[in-house]
Amino acid sequence: MTSEPAAPLTGQQAVDGLVRLLDLEQIEEDIYRGTSPKSQLQRVFGGQVAGQALVAAGRTVPRDRPVHSLHSYFIRPGDPAVPIVYEVDRVRDGRSFSTRRVTAIQHGKPIFALSASFQIVQPGLEHQAPMPQDVPDPETLPTLQERYADAPEFATWLRAGPQPIDVRWVDRPAWQQREHGPREGLNRAWMRANGTLPDDPLLHVCVLTFCSDLTLLDSVLTRHGIAQGVDIATMASLDHAMWFHQPFRADEWFLYSTRSPVASGSRGLATGRFYSRDGVQLVSVAQEGMFRLRDPD
Asked: So where are the chain's domains?
């Protein structure tokens, strides 16, 4: 008689696991090692390797220089059964800015490359795009578990491992939108760490970096009214860029508003903005993904 697999961890236990995941082991000067959680996924989640690479870069920069941008490429699929080695190159330390390059390595080959820039906080010009209007409060929206309850065939990610992020979709996610056809415009979701994080600004930035890869490419799918696992044979992140505008806590609610302006050549571009609950634009994001359609039966 076989027993049912244990339910993935949620809440503070899962958040504590994410904190441990981002707490890299230093094995040499400017060389760090990270691991992946036990998971049913066959490749390392892109937000994990991006967040760990940013941790490695940030540990070589003075604490008074928060990250203001990152640009990265996903080179090879990561193997979740093998540790990831992060090698940091201290490109430059100027009077106001520091630049770092990080290469993530498995099996002797690079799987991910990141460039990040850090800056001393300085005053200057300020403006922002307005937050989307008429967005329901996150507490009034279904949890991710409740969303997937009506579509268990799409719950691979939910069953894959610990769930440290509370995601509350405002608009229909791709697997529910499929029944209604293509949709242009915004794809919005509230998110936050599903527990309390330590008071480490770099950690909060890296947790939000982890979050930024959760729903972004869904905005490409909803433009066509299709869903991963049904219409898409293969889907993968190719590159990822982020610009950090304001300080924040990743254990407080933020709205992730994404859209896809263009797709061509088996690739789709998605852009996103993170807003605080009171309407402050915190972060801007852009990512291109690869989408290969299933052959029709």
From this structure: 11-121+141-293
pLDDT of the residue at 157: 56
Which ranges of the chain have pLDDT less than 70? 1-8, 40, 151-162, 296-297
**d(C-alpha 59, C-alpha 265), whole Å:** 38
Distances (CA, A) of 224 to 138, 141, 161, 205, 232: 26, 24, 29, 32, 11
Identity of the residue numbered 200: D
The confidence score (pLDDT) of residue 296 equals 66
> Can you point out the beta strands (E) in 6-51?
25-28, 31-34
Indicate the helix (H) or strand (E) that contains 56. helix 46-58
Among candidate residues 81, 103, 4, the one with its CA nearest the CA of residue 37: 81
Grouping H, G, I as helix, E, B as strand and the rest as coil, residue 87 is strand
The domain at 11-121+141-293 falls in which architecture?
Answer: Beta Barrel (2.40)
Q: State the pLDDT at residue 248.
A: 97
Which residue in the list 213, 215, 218, 222 is annotated as catalytic? 213
In angstroms, the first-to-last Cα distance of the chain is 37
Instruction: Report the distance separating Cα 289 and Cα 212, nearest Å.
Output: 13
Phi/psi at 264 (5° precision): -170, 160
Distance set, CA 61 to CA 85, 90, 115, 147 (Å): 19, 9, 13, 41
pLDDT at residue 154, as a whole number: 63
| pLDDT score for 1 | 40
Q: Which of 26, 196, 234, 246 is catalytic?
A: 234
Spatial CA neighbour of 240 closest among 285, 282, 290, 189: 285
| Cα dihedral 49, 54, 55, 60 sign | positive
Q: Judging by DSSP bridges, how do beta strands 232-244 and 109-119 pair with one another?
A: unpaired
- Is residue 213 part of the annotated active site? The answer reads yes
pLDDT of residue 148: 76
Contact 72, 115 (CB under 8 A): yes
Enumerate the H helices of 102-154 as residue ranges: 144-149
- Residue 233: its pLDDT value, please? 80
